[in-house]
């Protein structure tokens, strides 16, 4: 029996920004070290359907693109498949050329066929030379007449290691429009739905998905496959835990596929992730990459890891992100040909085998932040690694325009990172985690950002109280954190269109004239700067005129922690540009908070071994289906 591993697809939307992710009909030249487009021949009119495209006479189109090249290295490394068949269906005279790459991105020709009329051309390709990386793909060249690519698939005759379907778990809080769009995309993708057992939409909001325009029609189309579950807002961890819990009751499901709410889905990616999970030699988590929903050719999230010493998450090759496929496509990006091994994947899109959940439990009751990383670390330690799979992706609102490190989410950033460190860090006393956490507080204090420091202090107090607090405040920590903002005037975003805010000395603009101009201080300069600034803030009372009116104004990109401390007050743009915050020096708050953060971090360091044992002992109960079932019943 023939099994389709991957379909060649074209974009669902008539969006020219998406074309480089699916087809590359452009001519490229390399000038210096960067690829440059010398002629643009991309035409949406040549996309004839979901699986077909016109190749204009004399032109060449490459399918060596993010969504249509075949990630051979991942299939060789994680599955037992050692040969795939590429089938290309064409109409008209054309030449089909098949290529491969290695882990360094070096291209090699594999095969070439000339075709005429209506043709179905097969290429049998071995998967035995891709240990370090590499893709397979094909190009189509039209001859004297235009040709049509009518479809193409990558297939195998080998049976999968497991045949169960996946249930989808979509967690939402007041994003009904996004959810209906996702459901409509699924309803229009029968080949993906063939692998789906149930769609659990966990609605935790007040703006109900069931009342959104278009819901009735899509619900009718999906029928009994769709199930809406209402529950109070227990955060992403509570919503995804509910999806895990419900999927455990489904005998037809071998996996749960977690999806965020504010996303645009590529249904073929969903299908690919499930198929890859079915074929993996041993059960693995299959994570999807993240593109920017508001700048769709830009890739923001690929293989993610947790560095143990500071116990902090990051992307591999973080400095290379975001990657703009409108500037450099897959064939011009050698780094993207390397096989990257991940520690975890964000739960914007992540396929989890039920075997892993049965062995390690459900999500940590963390509300938001670090629940995905913690679960993947826990699963990885139990023998269920995470594969961050190329060609499996969706579009998600990126964090470029967010201030979540200084809003109410600061509590969860701090609390959950420390808890995850207590559970999984291999470094003595958490390595540099405590030092780094204290440094974050010092930066906020020097920048006159007192609200996030107050939240982070509460996070430390809760961690020090023991693991029982996580379940106790699951539904209350977020409202409490948001309510605390009323005590801090800096949290007010000034957007009144009838008022123009001014600072006394105008806007401070910093331009990088030379490499070292206005650079972040490091090494000994950093120590001296920090000490002087902390002492200055301890001793200095602000000038009253700077309290009445902000002293200076900064754009968000210029408002760094080593610039704001020089002033008594500052007017700073929000990350999304919708308004401005006013930060004002407060010596009394500063002194109290500085003493508190030093005391709390010292206590955390002293008690780390004791707390580590407490949290590790409590973990099996915190993440057990029985514990979560009780939470769902209590909050119903």
What features would you describe in this structure?
32% of the residues lie in helices and 25% in strands. With 636 residues, the chain is α+β, with helices and mostly antiparallel strands. The chain has three domains: 3-156, Spore Coat Polysaccharide Biosynthesis Protein SpsA, Chain A; 165-303 and 341-396, Spore Coat Polysaccharide Biosynthesis Protein SpsA, Chain A (Alpha-Beta Complex); 410-589, no CATH class. The strands form six sheets. Strands 12, 13, 14, 15, 16, 17, 18, 21, 22 and 23 form a ten-stranded mixed sheet that branches. Strands 1, 4, 6, 9 and 11 form a five-stranded antiparallel sheet that branches. Strands 5-10-7-8 form a four-stranded antiparallel sheet, with no helix packed on it. The longest helix is centred in the last third of the chain and has 36 residues, at 587-622. The protein is globular, with a radius of gyration of 27 Å. The two termini are 47 Å apart.
Blueprint (SSEs and pairs):
Blueprint: E1 3-7, H1 19-22, E2 27-31, E3 34-39, E4 53-55, E5 60-62, H2 72-78, E6 83-91, E7 94-101, E8 107-115, E9 118-126, E10 136-142, E11 147-156, E12 165-172, H3 176-187, H4 190-193, E13 196-203, H5 215-222, E14 226-230, H6 235-247, E15 253-259, E16 263-265, H7 267-279, E17 285-292, E18 295-301, E19 304-307, E20 312-315, E21 323-324, E22 349-353, H8 354-360, H9 371-381, E23 386-396, H10 410-424, H11 433-446, H12 450-465, H13 468-472, H14 477-484, E24 507-508, H15 523-539, H16 544-548, E25 552-554, E26 569-573, E27 580-584, H17 587-622, H18 625-635
Parallel strand pairs: 12-13, 12-15, 13-14, 17-23, 24-25, 25-26
Antiparallel strand pairs: 1-11, 2-3, 4-11, 5-10, 6-9, 6-11, 7-8, 7-10, 15-22, 16-23, 17-18, 17-22, 18-21, 19-20, 26-27
Helix pairs in contact: 3-5, 6-18, 9-10, 10-12, 11-17, 12-17
């Amino acid at each position: 029996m023939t099994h389709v591993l991957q379909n060649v697809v074209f974009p669902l939307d008539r969006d020219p920004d998406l074309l480089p992710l699916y087809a590359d009909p452009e001519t490229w030249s390399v000038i210096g070290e960067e690829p440059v487009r010398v002629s643009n021949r991309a035409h949406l009119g040549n996309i004839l359907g979901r699986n077909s495209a016109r190749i204009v006479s004399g032109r060449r189109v490459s399918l060596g693109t993010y969504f249509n090249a075949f990630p051979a290295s991942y299939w060789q490394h994680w599955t037992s498949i050692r040969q795939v068949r590429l089938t290309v269906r064409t109409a008209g005279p054309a030449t089909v050329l098949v290529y491969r790459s290695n882990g360094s991105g070096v291209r090699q020709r594999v095969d070439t066929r000339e075709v005429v009329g209506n043709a179905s051309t097969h290429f049998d390709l071995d998967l035995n030379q891709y240990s370090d990386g590499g893709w397979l793909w094909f190009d189509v060249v039209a001859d004297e007449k235009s040709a049509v690519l009518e479809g193409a698939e990558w297939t195998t005759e080998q049976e999968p290691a497991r045949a169960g379907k996946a249930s989808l778990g979509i967690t939402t809080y007041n994003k009904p429009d996004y959810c209906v769009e996702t459901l409509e995309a699924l309803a229009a993708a029968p080949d993906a739905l063939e692998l789906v057992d149930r769609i659990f939409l966990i609605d935790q909001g007040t703006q109900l998905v069931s009342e959104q325009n278009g819901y009735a029609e899509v619900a009718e189309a999906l029928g009994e496959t769709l199930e809406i579950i209402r529950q109070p807002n227990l955060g992403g961890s509570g919503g995804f835990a509910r999806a895990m819990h419900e999927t455990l009751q489904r005998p037809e499901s071998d996996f749960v596929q977690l999806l965020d709410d504010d996303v645009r889905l590529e249904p073929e990616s969903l299908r690919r992730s499930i198929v890859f999970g079915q074929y993996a030699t041993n059960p693995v988590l299959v994570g999807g990459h993240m593109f920017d929903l508001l700048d769709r050719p830009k890739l923001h999230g690929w293989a993610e890891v947790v560095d143990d010493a500071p116990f902090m998450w990051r992307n591999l090759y973080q400095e290379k992100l975001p990657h703009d496929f409108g500037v450099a496509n897959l064939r011009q990006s050698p780094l993207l040909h390397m096989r990257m091994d991940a520690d975890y994947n964000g739960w914007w899109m992540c396929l989890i085998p039920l075997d892993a959940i049965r062995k390690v439990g459900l999500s940590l009751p963390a509300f938001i932040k670090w629940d995905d990383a913690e679960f993947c670390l826990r699963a990885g330690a139990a023998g269920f690694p995470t594969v961050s799979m190329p060609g499996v992706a969706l579009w998600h609102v990126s964090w470029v325009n967010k201030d979540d490190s200084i809003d109410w989410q600061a509590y969860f950033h701090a609390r959950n990172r420390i808890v995850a460190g207590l559970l999984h860090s291999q470094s003595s006393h958490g390595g540099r985690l405590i030092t780094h956490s204290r440094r974050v507080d010092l930066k906020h204090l020097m920048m006159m950002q007192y609200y996030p420091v107050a939240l982070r202090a509460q996070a430390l107090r809760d961690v020090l109280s023991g693991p029982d607090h996580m379940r106790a405040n699951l539904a209350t920590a977020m409202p409490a954190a948001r309510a605390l903002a009323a005590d801090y005037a800096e949290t007010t975003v000034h957007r009144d269109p009838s008022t123009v805010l001014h600072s006394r000395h105008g806007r401070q603009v910093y331009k990088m004239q030379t490499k070292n101009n206005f650079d972040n201080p490091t090494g000994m300069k950093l120590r001296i700067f920090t000490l002087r600034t902390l002492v200055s803030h301890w001793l200095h009372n602000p000038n009253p005129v700077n309290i009445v009116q902000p002293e200076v104004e900064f754009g968000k990109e210029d408002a760094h922690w080593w610039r704001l401390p020089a002033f008594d007050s500052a007017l700073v743009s929000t990350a999304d540009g919708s308004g401005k915050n006013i930060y004002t020096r407060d010596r009394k708050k500063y002194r109290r908070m500085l003493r508190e953060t030093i005391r709390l971090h010292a206590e955390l360091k002293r008690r780390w071994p004791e707390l580590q044992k407490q949290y590790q002992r409590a973990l099996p109960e915190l993440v057990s289906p029985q514990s979560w079932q009780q939470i769902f019943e209590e909050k119903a």
